[in-house]
Design brief:
Blueprint: E1 19-20, E2 25-26, E3 31-33, E4 38-40, E5 44-46, E6 51-53, E7 60-62, E8 66-68, E9 73-75, E10 80-82, E11 87-88, E12 93-94, E13 97-99, E14 113-115, E15 118-120, E16 125-126, E17 131-132, E18 137-138, E19 143-144, E20 149-150, E21 158-161, E22 166-170
Parallel strand pairs: 1-4, 2-5, 3-6, 4-7, 5-8, 6-9, 7-10, 8-11, 9-12, 10-15, 11-16, 12-17, 15-18, 16-19, 17-20, 19-21
Antiparallel strand pairs: 13-14, 21-22
């Protein structure tokens, strides 16, 4: 039997972050857990009702000039890095852990948890409602389509769409 406990309220103050740059806007309703494990660069916008789920064992590093839309869920149990000049659309989910099946007769919730980092390169655009799964590396200058589910690495300058996301083409870095 699991013993449940609260993770807290998600309330925070700016001085609790590992680092926080200049001109950081955290809109009303943003909740932050383990801010001491989160680094925010300068010129960062975090939209209303977004949840930054820090984790005591790994870090969340958000670069400078980053825009994060409303109602996003960013998890850093396995570690999360978001490069500079990246846009994260509203409703995006980024996961860095998952439950592993260990015995077909047992509940999956009783299985081990696998942690795997997510890295999003500089200059990316993650479309509205996209989901990025644990262990994925999204290269530099990548565009992820609206509603896509990213389950494997995406190379630099790719445009990837779909469920699961597939690379449609590699764009010219000058675009």
């Amino acid at each position: 039997m699991h013993q449940f406990r609260s993770h807290g309220t998600g309330e925070f103050s700016r001085d609790q972050f590992a680092e926080i740059g200049e001109n950081v806007i955290l809109e009303r309703g943003v909740m932050v857990f383990h801010p001491e494990m989160i680094t925010l660069g300068s010129n960062v916008y975090v939209g209303h009702n977004t949840l930054l789920k820090g984790y005591y064992k790994n870090t969340m590093r958000i670069g400078s000039d980053v825009w994060i839309g409303q109602q996003c869920f960013l998890h850093s149990g396995g570690g999360l890095t978001i490069g500079n000049k990246t846009g994260i659309g509203p409703g995006v989910n980024i996961f860095t852990s998952s439950h592993m099946e260990t015995d077909q007769r047992a509940s999956i919730m009783d299985g081990a948890i696998k942690f795997a980092p997510v890295v999003i390169g500089e200059g990316c655009d993650i479309g509205v409602g996209a989901t990025i799964m644990p262990g994925v590396r999204v290269g530099r200058g990548v565009q992820i389509g609206t509603g896509s589910v990213v389950v494997e690495d995406v190379p630099d300058y790719a445009i990837a769409v779909g469920v699961p996301a597939r690379v449609m083409r590699i764009r010219d870095p000058g675009e």
